[in-house]
């Protein structure tokens, strides 16, 4: 059956609650909580005109904990992307100046088969899947985002890391002509990030190429960005042009600027506060009351083993 988010003409201020209502109905159905919900759906008033908000077919996007995904509007208009602006609402309009095609990703360093991949090659070589992940920013807000992409592990296996390899370093594109924020000398551009090789090989770690089934919007890191859902959002580096397998721990931009505030690991941890604010709770975009932050952002079952025996307040 159809799940198109249609509505009778409404003011734009009413569109999101309407979408939320319809999506929640789909969630209840998907969870099998209410029998006969098809009849309930059939009783909805006749639908006439499309809204101007993006329209998506299919069942509501819900993560494995039952959290509904944020709307496309929310995900694409509230962005941290300092290459464009430090103002989250200003990123989307500025991103119109950036052209992500053509694009290549160089995979190099301690690998048997270094290779530069065209973006289209990555799409055809590695099957694309949907992953609905929570994203928890170190600033204590969060979203739920339905990404499309493929496991970073698939790409790394293809280039064959050597026995000595222990870390992976990622680098964002440097194009100050198109990214005005890169004119600021305060930040050590290009943005870089890193993972331990076993973190990079974990099945949760995604190279995302889209969201809501659409090509990745520029403001979210077009055409390809990392998503590491159990770590603070700054680890999920956008618009990647280079991936380097290394023996030594790579630098990451926020740790370079403020090593006492931002570490290498950056695992979401409600028990280890940022020096300037608590990490115990978070504001989910689109919600009124705060939520408790979950250890490893709720992904402990898949990743806690990676940190066995480590002091997580030392290795923040
Ligand atoms: N290159 C680059 N990657 C980046 C950032 C950035 O400023 N530049 N911001 C990070 C931060 S702090 C967060 S919270 C997420 C936000 O991702 P989103 O805008 O897709 O929600 O991107 C991360 N990746
Ligand atoms: Mo963030």
Q: In the residues, how many domains can be counted?
A: 1
| CATH homology superfamily name | Oxidoreductase, molybdopterin-binding domain
Bound molecules: the ligand Nc1nc2c(c(=O)[nH]1)N[C@H]1C(S)=C(S)[C@@H](COP(=O)(O)O)O[C@H]1N2, molybdenum atom
Q: How many strands, what sense, and barrel or not for the largest sheet?
A: 7 strands, mixed
- Helix- and strand-based class? alpha+beta
- Give the ordered list of helices and strands: HHHHEEHEEHEEHEEEEHEEH
Task: Report the count of strand segments.
Answer: 12
| Helical segment count | 9
**Regarding CATH, which class?**
Alpha Beta
Strand content: 15-25%
Low-confidence stretches: 1-52
Averaged pLDDT = 88
Anisotropy-based shape:
globular
Give the CA-CA distance, first to last residue: 47 Å
Radius of gyration: 20 Å
């Amino acid at each position: 059956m159809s799940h198109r988010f249609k509505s009778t003409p409404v003011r734009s201020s009413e569109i999101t609650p309407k979408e939320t209502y319809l999506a929640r109905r789909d969630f209840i159905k998907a969870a099998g909580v209410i029998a006969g919900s098809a009849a309930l759906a059939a009783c909805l008033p006749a639908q006439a005109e499309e809204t101007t908000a993006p329209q998506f077919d299919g069942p509501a996007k819900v993560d494995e904990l039952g959290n509904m995904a944020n709307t496309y509007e929310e995900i694409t208009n509230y962005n941290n992307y300092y290459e464009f602006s430090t103002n989250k609402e200003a990123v989307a309009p500025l991103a119109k100046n950036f052209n992500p095609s053509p694009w290549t990703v160089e995979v190099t360093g301690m690998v048997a088969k270094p290779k530069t991949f065209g973006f289209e090659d990555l799409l055809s070589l590695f099957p694309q899947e949907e992953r609905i992940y929570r994203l928890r920013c170190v600033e204590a807000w969060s979203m739920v985002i339905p990404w499309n992409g493929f496991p970073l592990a698939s790409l790394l296996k293809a280039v064959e890391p050597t026995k000595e390899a222990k870390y992976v370093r990622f680098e964002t594109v440097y194009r100050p002509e198109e990214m005005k924020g890169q004119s600021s000398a305060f930040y050590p551009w290009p943005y870089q990030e890193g993972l331990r090789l076993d973190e990079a090989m974990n099945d949760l770690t995604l190279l995302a190429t889209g969201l809501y089934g659409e090509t990745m919007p520029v403001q979210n890191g077009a055409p390809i960005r990392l998503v590491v859902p159990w770590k603070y959002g700054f680890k999920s580096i956008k618009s990647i042009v280079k991936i380097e397998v290394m023996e030594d721990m790579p630098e990451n931009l926020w740790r370079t600027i403020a090593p006492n505030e931002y570490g290498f690991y950056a695992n979401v941890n409600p028990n280890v506060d940022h020096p300037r604010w608590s990490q115990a709770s978070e504001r989910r975009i689109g919600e009124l009351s705060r939520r408790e932050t979950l250890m490893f952002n709720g992904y402990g079952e898949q990743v806690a083993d990676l940190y066995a025996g480590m002091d997580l307040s030392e290795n923040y």
